[in-house]
Amino acid sequence: MLSRQFDADRASVIQRALKAGNEFLVEVATDAPASERAIGLAKDFGEVYASVGVHPHDAKTVDKSVLARLEELADDARVVAIGEAGLDFYRNLSPPDVQKTVFAQLIALAKRKKLPLIIHIRNAYREALEILERENASDVGGVLHCFAGDAASADRAMQLGFFLGFGGTITYERSPSRQLVSTLPLESVVLETDCPYLTPEPHRGKRNEPAYVRLVLDALAKLLRVPRDMVEEVTTQNARELFHIEQQSGCDRGAR
Ligand SMILES: [Zn+2]
Question: What is the pLDDT of residues 32-41, one digit of tens each?
Fold first, then answer.
């Protein structure tokens, strides 16, 4: 929700998301300044938490001072994860070797801070899983967000204790992730927005917002042919487990 596309109505977007049944939101950063803004948003809204990281597109901007800044930001009490972190060999906006180095550095950061990872992978599942295995990322776990790999990659990720994140794409008739997600154990699945991108049907083509996660939930329940409430309960519990966010009692809600 840090995107400029939400500048005019960010607070109402968050209210709508909560009204639609999301119990909490995680704002995922793509670089150090965004990480700082994510923490700011999490301080303004009790149900928003922050993730601190650098998108693989921006890996080439990471130097000692950026790493030091992330190290510091990750200590904030509102931070529940390290990410984005990962490899994107589709556009290669940063050289692949640099992406790999920064990915390993972010995994090390997550391990030092004992925080789960939010992993971005595009056209690099084999390489990314190798790094996750080599760096013992299973110590902290995390989620492969907007999962678009094959069944073998899903297996490897689950063996490392990672969750697989699915968003609007599973509402698209021709998306291969529709088939894949219906073969996975629900205990390994979390739902996500990726807003303002990957807008679920029937809003495809317009700005995405977290309230539409309920459409992803509907699609998943239909694909699995199980009651919607069950999918809602399990995926919410999975997200709590993933980010170590405990159920708050009524009087604690919004306290900060
Ligand atoms: Zn991503």
Answer: 999 999 999 9
CA 88–ligand 1 middle distance (angstroms):
9
Cα–ligand 1 centroid distance for 84 (angstroms) = 6
Measure the CA–CA gap between 128 and 117, rounded to whole angstroms: 13
> What spacing in Å lies between the alpha carbon of 146 and ligand 1's midpoint?
7
Gap from CA of 202 to ligand 1 centroid (Å): 22
Residues less than 5 Å from ion ligand 1, measured at CB: 120
Give the domains, in start order, of the chain with CATH numbers.
4-245 (3.20.20.140)
Question: How many whole angstroms from 185 Cα to the centroid of ligand 1?
Answer: 23
**Encoded amino acid at 236, one letter:** T
Separation of CA 251 and ligand 1 centre (Å): 34
Q: With b meaning 16 or more CB within 10 Å and e meaning fewer, what string describes 146-165? A: bbbbeeebbebbbebebbbb
Helix (H, G, I), strand (E, B) or coil at 120: strand
The residue behind tokens 């793509």 is: 30
Tens digits of residue pLDDT in 172-215: 999 999 999 999 999 999 999 999 999 999 999 999 999 999 99
Per-residue tokens: 181: 């997600």
Q: What's the CA-to-centroid distance between 50 and ligand 1, angstroms?
A: 15
Whether the predicted model's global pTM rises above the 0.90 cut: yes
Mapping DSSP to helix (H, G, I), strand (E, B) and coil, where does residue 85 land? strand
Tokens of 246: 């405990």
Q: How far apart are CA 187 and CA 194, in angstroms?
A: 21
